[in-house]
């Protein structure tokens, strides 16, 4: 007779949910649990296009995203040049019936929303569903004011990059920079003291000259 062998697995025993639910149902449950969580982003200090690209990708993947403080989003370039570009955009309309579009949003949140919409296939059902997962706000309304907000740090320090590819003077430069800051702090304190002492004398001299 054949010997009966006991197979010892190194994996922990599977939870009951594996046996109680079909495979497809289990994975759909896991994915639903993941995407039910809302990603709360603080727009302050982010570049408009870069943040919009990341948000567009996430909502297409099924993630719900809320962006607050849209009035703090940055636009690269000169303010006057950007204003001229937006004023030119405001002039674009339908000649016969302007109420049919294009629609020009004034609120920062809606401007950001329109930027994200331009990165989505919003005329398809998939794009419409993705756009429905996005919420944008000016300021931080409740209940988001009491929740932890996330940022998108899409930048890298040049010093760290250079150090990791072979630059040998990161520590020396940091030490010299600390010494420079200490000297600058002492110099500024001395300047404030001198200004405080000499200001009454200067004011009295000016009064004497004017009289």
Number of domains: 2
Quaternary state, please? single chain
Please give the CATH class of the largest domain: Alpha Beta
The average pLDDT value, as a whole number, equals: 84
Helix content: 40-55%
Largest sheet: 3 strands, parallel
CATH topology term of the largest domain: Ribosomal Protein L13p, Chain: A
The SSE order reads HHEHEHHHEHH
Number of strand segments: 3
From the helix content, strand content and strand pairing, which structural class follows?
mainly alpha
Strand order of the largest sheet: 1-2-3
| The named CATH superfamily of the largest domain | Ribosomal protein L13
Contiguous helical run count: 8
The percentage of residues in β strands lies in: 5-15%
- Judging by the overall fold, what is the CATH architecture of the largest domain? Alpha-Beta Complex
Tell me the Rg in angstroms.
Answer: 30 Å
The parts where pLDDT drops under 50 for at least 5 residues are 5-10, 16-21
Terminal-residue CA separation: 125 Å
GO cellular component, one term: cytosolic large ribosomal subunit
Pfam family, one: Ribosomal_L13
Protein name: Large ribosomal subunit protein uL13
GO molecular function: mRNA binding; structural constituent of ribosome
